[in-house]
Structures are given as C-alpha cells and as structure tokens.
Amino acid sequence: MELFTPDFGLVFWMFIAFIILFAVLAKWGWPVILKNMDERADTIDKGVEYAQQAKHQLDHAREEAQKYMEEAQAKQAEMLRDAAKMKTQIIEEAKQQAGVEAQKVMDAAKVSIEQSRKEAELQFRNEVSKFSIEIAEKMVRTQMKDDAAQVKLVDKLLDEIENN
Asked: Are the C-beta atoms of 143 and 149 separated by less than 8 Å?
C-alpha cells in the first residue's frame, strides 16, 4: 500500500527533484525547444511564402505561355495566308506560262501548216506546169509536123530573143 499512499518525505524529495529538473529544462532545454520551434515556424512560413511565390510565378508563366501560344497561332495564321497567296500566285503564273506555251505551240503549228500549204501549192504548181508542158509538147508536135511551121516557129523565137 505504500505505493498508493506515499510518505511525506518521498513526496518532498520528488517535489525537489521535479523543481531541479524543471529549472534545468527551463535554463537549457526550453530555449532550445523554443528556438527549434521558432525555426520550424520560420521554415514553414518561408515554405508558404515560397509556395505563394511559386504559384505566382506559375500563374505568370501560364500567362506568358498563353501569350506565346497566341503569338504562335497568329504567326501560323499569317504563314498560312502567305502560303495561300503564294499558291494562288504560282497557279496564276503556271496558267500564264501554259497560255504562253500553248500560244507558241499554236504559232508553230500555224507556221508548219502554212509551210506545208506552200509546199503543197508549189508541188501542185510543179505538177500543173509539168502537165502543161506535156500538153504543150503534144500540141507542138502535132502542129509542127510540117517543116514550114517549124521554120516559122524558130524564126519567131529568134526574133523574140533579139528584141530582149
């Protein structure tokens, strides 16, 4: 039963030991604990402040990224417009070049056709003149069967040569 009802001396020495322990802790223990707690509080405050700064920087970075995205989209749209203009211009130039080439081909075809027509005309004239000569030769042979007609023709041709 002594454990449940301690003597006055035991309580007194326990009280003295408690006071000494309290004084030692108050002198050396509590300042260290309080200092560590203050440091921890400062660290937490700095962490919160750092987190707020990081959030602010993240928000700023998001705004900047959004701005860059808008700029990139504007540049992309401008590049697409320029590409469309270039495409239209290239198509128009190709059409013009095709028109010029077609005109050249048509002009060459016209020249070729005209040349072929002239050659055919010349060939036709040669054939006609050949037929005319053959007909004239046959007519002259029939008309020149007698000697008097031959002499008369030769005299006439010599007179024409002398006059020229």
From this structure: yes
Structural tokens at position 144: 């020149």
Q: What does the alpha-carbon distance between residue 130 and residue 144 come to, in Å, rounded to a whole number?
A: 20
* Cα–Cα–Cα angle for 33, 38, 40, rounded to 5 degrees: 95
> Cβ neighbours of residue 123 under 8 Å, at least 6 residues apart?
none
Tens-of-pLDDT digits for all 164 residues of the chain? 566 777 888 889 999 999 999 999 999 989 999 999 999 999 999 999 999 999 999 999 999 999 999 999 999 999 999 999 999 999 999 999 999 999 999 999 999 999 999 999 999 888 888 888 888 777 777 776 777 777 787 788 788 888 87
Domain range summary for the chain, segments of one domain joined by +? 20-163
Tokens representing 142?
């029939």
Distance between CA atoms of 84 and 79, rounded to whole angstroms?
A: 8
Conformation bin of residue 100: beta by default, left when phi > 0, alpha when psi is -120 to 50: alpha
Picking from 88, 65, 69, the residue whose alpha carbon sits closest to that of residue 77 is: 69
**Contact call for residues 144 and 136 (beta carbons, < 8 A):** no
